[in-house]
Write the structure tokens for this entry.
Amino acid sequence: MTKTETVGWIGTGVMGSSMCQHLLNNGHKVAVFNRTRSKAEPLVKMGAEWCDTPADVAEKSRIIFSIVGYPKDVRQVFLGESGILSKAEAGSCIVDMTTSTPALAVHIHNKAQEMEIDSIDAPVSGGDTGAREGKLAIMAGGKPEAFERVRPYFELMGENIKLMGGPGKGQHTKMCNQTLIASTMIGVVESLLYAHKAGMDMEKVISVIGKGAASSWSINNLGPRIARGDFDPGFFIKHFVKDMRIALDEARRMEVTLPGLALAEQFYTSAMAMGFENLGTQGLYKVLERMNGG
Amino acid sequence: MTKTETVGWIGTGVMGSSMCQHLLNNGHKVAVFNRTRSKAEPLVKMGAEWCDTPADVAEKSRIIFSIVGYPKDVRQVFLGESGILSKAEAGSCIVDMTTSTPALAVHIHNKAQEMEIDSIDAPVSGGDTGAREGKLAIMAGGKPEAFERVRPYFELMGENIKLMGGPGKGQHTKMCNQTLIASTMIGVVESLLYAHKAGMDMEKVISVIGKGAASSWSINNLGPRIARGDFDPGFFIKHFVKDMRIALDEARRMEVTLPGLALAEQFYTSAMAMGFENLGTQGLYKVLERMNGG
């Protein structure tokens, strides 16, 4: 990692903007692209160089990070007509930090390898706060040499940084993470609805069940928000639905049945149908409430 | 709380024995009964006085604790022919610490009130370790005066001790706790099965997903046991099934639908059918494994 070398950054949403800022704040030169240019302006004001396409970013930098929305966006950014791989040179390294499909990560890795380009899939967890504070968990998949090459950049963005295996394994780990959250959230909203229906104070119940064998990040962080009727997004329902559907697709591909994840996906699909897509994941409580006549 | 007064104790299983020991170790006189006498012998050797029936315990003590197996045992101990209420005097206080039904707790409370006897339902959480170390969570329901009367005894057994509301509310809180654990456990076993099927090392995956928004007591304490193939009981599947069925019955009584809890109960019923009733709750992994051809 030399600071004279320009780093590429594609995707300046809430997560990407914070992550890219850490690079700028540490003195790196950055070439930036985002589909909606206005969202990249704050970074440009901080010194990042604007590029009109992902291909332009690839022309200016040999290490390129991306964090965009959906797998179709990842495909566009890397494999599209003005995509990164249309211009990236041999010896470059591409790093997709979007939560996307393991299969696509492997596909991009294989395409890149044919061009002698390194490729890492490295989705994150920790939300907007983690991104802002440089405390993300980063779950990487790819070759160890490629991982070591980009690790210094990861260390500016995160704290719990691990190479989980070969190409796609970063994405697979993120799917494990989301699968675990999915059923935990069902437990959270069902236990709080039970508490409410049994005539108890939710916060008091959380103060007991949040400490022992039932404790989780979700009950202790999202539970009190539900108790206060605060459904603002930390993590959007619409994004969580995307993740669960990727996990279910991959599970089907592996012929693995995950009934709890399937139930959670159905619950959250119901949340989408009720117009709650822009609520935080704790908005699942409102679905259960309506199912129970509320 | 005076140490010259004899305290009654009914139920000397793994939990009850440890809890009662704390009373003896603190200098209290104890009158003890257990259905299987041999299990009470260690306490008798420590100085507890053996009684042949719950009624005999009630004759010797004005504050009587019980922690037995199933609601039918609770009914027998309190309302049966040689039960506590057949002999307890006005001014006594009965405390059932079994995880049992809220409706039965209310019923016993009402019967006791007619006899001018105080009644508290106070199920615990924290398992055999919590009981041994005097670190249980104790969730109580009943009248505040009655709770204050027995609180000094609770403080010898636990740390997180709360009066949750009127009669039955201790049991309701425990049901919230078990409902939360039920779906969380589905998330734990599904995420670890996914990890395994995707060719990843479970312990490495736990080291990442166990730290952020997906973290829970279950993934961090039971996950590593699953990874090691250790299915020994901390908490027996057969007891967890009892608890989930009580929670579902109460939910039905309140006309509340809890689909995640219902799914978990079905999964664990499958565990019973497969002969896993004496495994720990992490044995759910084996059910999912078999469902997936393992």
Notes: Chain B touches chain A through 70 residues (CB under 8 Å). The mean pLDDT of chain B is 97.
